[in-house]
Protein: Dynein beta chain, ciliary
Amino acid sequence: MKDLLSKFENYILEKWKVQLDELDEKLDQALFLKNQDDQVLLNFDSRISAVAQEIRYLKQIKKDNLLSEKAMNFDRKIPNLLLSQSLLACSVQWYSDLSQNLVEYEKKLISKQWDDLIILLEEGYSKIWTSEGLLSYAEKLYDLTKYVYETVMKAKKNILDVEKLIKRWNDVPIYVRETPSSLIELNDLKTPTYKKQLDLIKLTAGRMNDALKLFKSNPDSAEWKDYILCLESIIKEGLIDAIKCSLIYLQKNTDPNNKKIDPFYKIHMLLQQDIIFQPPLKEQDEQSLLIILNLF
Structure:
């Protein structure tokens, strides 16, 4: 039985040595490849990690005497190599996500960092897994890619938050009755609903500022102005919807053909030398209902 086990052990080790020869060739290949869609791929054979674990296991059970010189040399390369592989894998994943999801105006805002990232990636096509300074290169690429990725993702999240907040602007009209039968108080239109809407708009503005702070760009640059223009279009659309919501509410509550609704606001008719209405009914009057609403 011992002879059989010994023969089997030798068979496995011989087979393992052949695999090491194959993996040595893999280590002499470039770090990155490109597929037919021009996407960056990490050129790493997963068997390298498996062999590294097997070597580590043999050393743990005090069987490192079974390791050939080739295996020992392979083992000496492993610690930095596996760490480098992990860093490069993260970098490639982040870069791929950015390549697919980065909007053109965002790319312009990080053009310097993006160009630096491309240059670093290009170096990987000429480096191999046994290149000197591999870990240093992997760490540099990882740090830069992580910074760019996190900056862009935070900005995207802030913009999504802003869009969600803006959509809430038209959930409730700015001016509403306190109860279905109450009158709008024209002397004080700053109702709790109005104040709530105002707080929501201020919160939206704060989130917008957070998004702007993430990109360190020249405020006078063309790319920055393009970015601001994009954000302004989001705000403009939200304001239009909010105004539309309030106007529809006013229209429904002042519709003379709808006999089911209660009066919306009260107008006083003063009998003086002339008949005077409070608030005035003429649009051009400074205290007319239209002017009062526009003031807020």
